[in-house]
Design a protein that fits this description.
By secondary structure, the protein is an alpha+beta fold. The protein contains 5 helices and 7 strands; from the N terminus they run ααααβββββββα. The protein has one domain (35-336).
Length: 346
């Protein structure tokens, strides 16, 4: 007699149970994978800032001071508009971040800008540079700015120009425009108004790298370990092609410069305040952490990132630290301004 063999398969219920278990396991693993990926992105971003800070240090060693935030070749250049602004800090340090070949292609224009306003240096604007991009801001990595001739490649890092936004009552304050208040290394002072009511009257607010001016690292009044050199910024083209935030070669507020931060409505990193950044072409998205006042002339911009809970910041001594969004706005002021006489070790 032949013993019959019974081939038993999965029942539909068993199959559904297995699928459900697999789905649960995937659901449990996915947040962990995302957390690991973000930790890796944050580390990569921190390394980018370290390399850029070292590039600034090498520039300082070669030329005796840090690069300027942006060059302005004569008084007729309007630094609140996308007119004939010159090379910024990121362009100037290209030879020091392994981008010497790119620099040499446009060296004549870069060196002639301060002589004649030569704008041929802008030919490098479309070049994407990995070191200039935070991997967490992946959505903006392929979105180019369409204004000022178009083709401006994105970037996620900005120098610290300090300054005061909309406070003309303080001593030494030469402009109510945050971006212009430190031009030529001016040192504006708080006037105790609602703009800067959280710091004492006459607290100074010089930047580190400004329009046509910069400190030597060794001469930063508050000390290099206490003063922000570079920070993250976010790209803004997901909101619209005219948003100037996050452009590596453009030395303008929000593009590659933070300025007027910790004053008025731009108080802390990643602030969700309405109308906070005042940048050319900016689009207001406070819920998304990109608050802006379109058309506002006061020109300020704060540090921003897509990292959960804060931003990476490079201090002037070259150290990189993660600054929480919950930092008090007076402490952020003291970290940002280079001559406020506060020398906390953050």
């Amino acid at each position: 007699m032949h013993r019959s063999r019974i081939h038993r398969g999965f029942t539909l219920i068993e199959l559904l149970v297995v699928i459900a278990i697999i789905a649960i396991l995937i659901g449990l693993l996915l947040p962990a994978v995302q957390k690991i990926r973000e930790a890796a992105n944050r580390m990569s971003c921190s390394n980018n800032l370290k390399q850029l800070a070292l590039g600034c240090h090498n520039y300082n060693d070669t030329y005796g001071s840090l690069p300027v935030a942006c060059q302005k070749y004569n008084a007729s250049v309007d630094m609140t508009q996308l007119s004939n602004f010159g090379p910024n800090w990121a362009v100037l340090i290209l030879p020091f971040i392994e981008q010497d070949n790119l620099y040499k292609q446009f060296q004549v224009g870069i060196q002639q800008y301060m002589v004649s306003g030569d704008s041929s240096w802008r030919g490098l604007r479309s070049q994407k540079i990995k070191t200039m991009l935070c991997p967490s801001d992946g959505a903006g990595a392929n979105m180019f700015f369409t204004g000022a001739g178009g083709g401006w490649a994105p970037g996620n890092y900005a120098c610290n120009a300090g300054g005061i936004h909309q406070d003309t009552t303080g001593p030494n304050t030469v402009s109510a425009v945050g971006w212009l208040s430190t031009e030529g290394m001016a040192s504006p002072s708080s006037g105790g108004s609602s703009t800067t009511s959280w710091v004492p009257y006459n607290t100074h607010a010089a930047g580190v790298m400004c329009i046509n001016g910069s400190f030597a690292i060794s001469t930063i009044p508050d000390g290099s370990s206490n003063t922000v050199l570079l920070s993250e910024v976010r790209t803004g083209r997901h909101l619209g092609p005219s948003d100037t935030r996050g452009i590596w070669a453009m030395g303008m507020p929000g593009a590659s410069v933070i300025c007027g931060q910790a004053s008025w409505d731009c108080s802390t990193p990643n602030t969700t305040e309405d109308n906070s950044d005042d940048c050319i072409g900016c689009i207001n998205d406070p819920v998304g952490g990109m608050g802006a006042w379109p058309g506002c002339p006061f020109q300020q911009a704060n540090a921003r990132s897509r990292h959960a809970g804060g931003v990476n910041v490079a201090f002037s001594d070259g150290g990189v630290r993660f600054i929480r969004n919950t930092i008090a706005k007076d402490v952020w002021w003291y970290m940002s301004m280079s001559d406020d006489a506060h020398t906390y070790n953050y």
